[in-house]
Specification:
Layout: E1 4-9, H1 19-29, E2 35-40, H2 46-53, E3 59-62, H3 79-82, E4 88-91, H4 94-100, H5 104-117, E5 120-125, H6 129-133, H7 137-152, E6 164-167, H8 181-197, H9 202-207, E7 210-213, H10 221-225, E8 232-235, H11 242-264
Parallel strand pairs: 1-2, 1-8, 2-3, 3-4, 4-5, 5-6, 6-7, 7-8
Bound molecules: phosphoenolpyruvate.
Length: 265
């Protein structure tokens, strides 16, 4: 059975003084042992968020990592620097693809770097609106998966229980528009098929959690979690609001319980 994961991407929001209290408030209203919860604040807020979350069961994630361990890379942060601060890391978010020119090849190397360093990558993929309108959304995402797997040397599938993939249609991020549950489910199937087409076994591909991301709120999460091939959400804007997170995680806990009892039958 795959875990249910709700990951919060705070993007470039919060400061070292307000991030800890916000993380603590979210942890307090999302207590659900069957749901893996992760909060990804900006780098400078990692330490206060880690301290605020101690003993709550909520993990901490970074929003990016460099492929190298150290050197002349001004402004960058390596996996080694994240040790003790974060156990997860978002990789390849569409805002970094858009603003920093991150390519699938670089993203594949970052995913590999996370895995070598003991960080669980939340690897983001997703199509642009024009790709969906032209009927090539699945082909675009399958190619994103292939390019990153090749560049990262991840074709063997040995990381099936560590990698998490977030399907985030770019046109749904921060726009208030969401994909339909059935389109997101079809993409989750396409992502797992792409893993299989690139050297993973069926069992390995099926073991990878696939999250949906794109304007998820407490009112929209149910549509995605009612799809058996979707295993949670990467939440941006709504993740800064404890009430929204409470609703999202409560729905995730219901899904986790239902899937657990179905698996035991
Ligand atoms: C995200 O940042 O990954 C995201 C999905 O943002 P939002 O929920 O605001 O669309």
């Amino acid at each position: 059975m795959r875990p249910i994961i709700i990951a919060a991407n705070w993007k470039m929001n919060t400061t070292p003084s307000d991030a800890g209290p916000l993380a603590a408030a979210i942890a307090a209203v999302t207590d659900a042992p069957d749901v893996e919860r992760v909060i990804c604040p900006p780098y400078v807020c990692l330490a206060p968020v880690r301290d605020a979350l101690a003993g709550t069961g909520v993990d901490v994630g970074a929003q990016n990592v460099h492929v190298r361990d150290a050197g002349a890379y001004t402004g960058e942060i390596s996996a080694a620097m994240l040790a003790g601060l974060a156990s997860w890391c978002i990789v390849g978010h569409s805002e970094r693809r858009r603003d920093m020119g991150e390519t699938d090849e670089l993203i594949g190397r970052k995913v590999a770097r996370c895995l070598e360093s003991g960080l669980r990558p939340i690897w983001c993929v997703g199509e642009q609106l024009e790709d969906r309108e032209a009927g090539r959304a699945e082909a675009v995402v399958r190619e994103q998966v292939r390019l990153a797997l090749v560049a990262g040397g991840l074709a063997g599938g040995a990381w099936a229980h560590t990698i998490v993939i977030a399907y985030e249609p770019v046109w749904a991020i921060g726009t208030g528009r969401t994909a339909s549950g059935s389109d997101a489910a079809a993409m989750a199937d396409a992502i797992r098929a792409a893993l299989e087409a690139n050297g993973w076994t069926h069992e390995q591909a099926q073991a990878v959690p696939v999250l949906y991301g794109g304007s998820v709120t407490a009112s929209t999460i149910a549509e995605f979690l009612s799809e058996p091939c979707i295993d949670g959400a990467l939440v941006g804007g709504a993740s800064l609001k404890p009430d929204e997170m409470a609703g999202i995680v409560a729905r995730a806990a219901t899904t986790a319980a239902a899937r657990r009892s179905a698996a035991l039958r």
